[in-house]
Specification:
The protein is an alpha+beta fold. It has three domains: 2-102, Winged helix-like DNA-binding domain superfamily/Winged helix DNA-binding domain (Arc Repressor Mutant, subunit A, Orthogonal Bundle); 108-148; 153-210, no CATH class. Helices cover 59% and strands 12% of the residues. It is built from nine helices and four strands; from the N terminus they run ββββααααααααα. A four-stranded antiparallel sheet has the order 3-2-1-4, with helices on one face. α5 (127-136) runs antiparallel to α6 and α8 (173-186) packs across α9 (191-206). It starts with a strand and ends in a 6-residue tail after the last helix.
Length: 212
C-alpha cells in the first residue's frame, strides 16, 4: 500500500529529527539525515517505511557512538558495551562499528598505542599492569603484544620512581624504601625491578654516597 507524504515537520524537542505525516496524519519520526530525500507530495510504500525506520535506528545508534567517542578515544569493545547498555539491537551495533571503522573513528591498534604512550609519559606502569589495562578495554592479545613490544620495564620503573620520589625525599632510607617498593608494586613492577628503581631514585636525590 502507498501513502502520500503530506507534511514533514521538525520536532520541537530535537531539531535534528522530523515528524513525517502520511495522508494527513502523523506516521513516524526519523532523523533529518534519513529523511533528507523525502518530499511533501511524494508517495511511499509500507516497504519503504520499514526501510526508513531501520535506517533511522542505525543512525540513532551511530550518533550515540559518536557522542560516546567525543569524551575520549575508545576501544571497539567499549563502544559495543556502551551501545548494548542503551539496548540497541545487535545488527545496529554491528553496522555502527563497521561505519566507525570505515571512518577511522575506532581503531584498536591506534587506541592501544596511544594508551601505552600516555601511560609511559604520564603514569608509568609495569608491563603486566599495562597488559591488564588493555585486556580490560577489550584489546586482543595480538594487539597488546604489538603495543608493548620494545618497552624497557626498568626504564618505566625508574620513571615512575622519579616522579614519586620528591614526595618522600625527607624520609629515612628504610621508610623511603618501604613506601617506594609498595608504590612500584601496585603499578605492576616486580621486586627486582622495583628495588633497582628505588635505589636509582634515592641516588638521584641524595647522591651516590647515600645508596640504599
Amino acid at each position: 500500500m502507498d501513502y502520500e507524504i503530506t507534511a514533514i515537520k521538525a520536532q520541537k524537542r530535537n531539531q535534528k529529527r522530523v515528524n513525517v505525516y502520511l495522508d494527513g496524519e502523523y506516521a513516524f519520526g526519523v532523523s533529518r539525515i534519513v529523511a533528507a530525500w523525502l518530499e511533501v507530495g511524494q508517495r511511499i510504500s509500507d516497504e519503504k517505511i520499514t526501510q526508513l525506520k531501520s535506517e533511522d535506528g542505525r543512525e540513532i545508534a551511530y550518533q550515540q557512538a559518536l557522542k560516546f567517542l567525543s569524551y575520549r578515544p575508545r576501544s571497539e569493545a567499549e563502544v559495543r558495551q556502551n551501545l548494548l547498555s542503551h539496548k540497541y539491537p545487535n545488527e545496529d551495533i554491528t553496522f555502527t562499528l563497521e561505519r566507525l571503522r570505515q571512518n577511522k573513528l575506532v581503531d584498536d591498534v591506534r587506541f592501544a598505542q596511544a594508551w601505552v604512550e600516555n601511560r609511559v609519559d604520564l603514569r608509568p606502569r609495569g608491563i603486566r599492569a599495562l597488559e591488564y589495562e588493555l585486556r580490560n578495554k577489550g584489546i586482543t592479545q595480538d594487539i597488546i603484544d604489538q603495543s608493548l613490544n620494545g618497552l624497557d620495564e626498568q626504564l618505566l620503573a625508574n620513571s615512575a620512581a622519579r616522579q614519586r620520589a620528591p614526595r618522600w625525599e625527607h624520609l629515612e632510607p628504610s621508610d623511603f624504601k618501604t613506601k617506594m617498593h609498595a608504590y612500584l608494586s601496585r603499578r605492576g613492577f616486580n621486586y627486582s625491578i622495583a628495588r633497582e628503581a628505588t635505589d636509582h631514585a634515592w641516588i638521584e636525590i641524595h647522591g651516590i654516597e647515600d645508596k640504599l
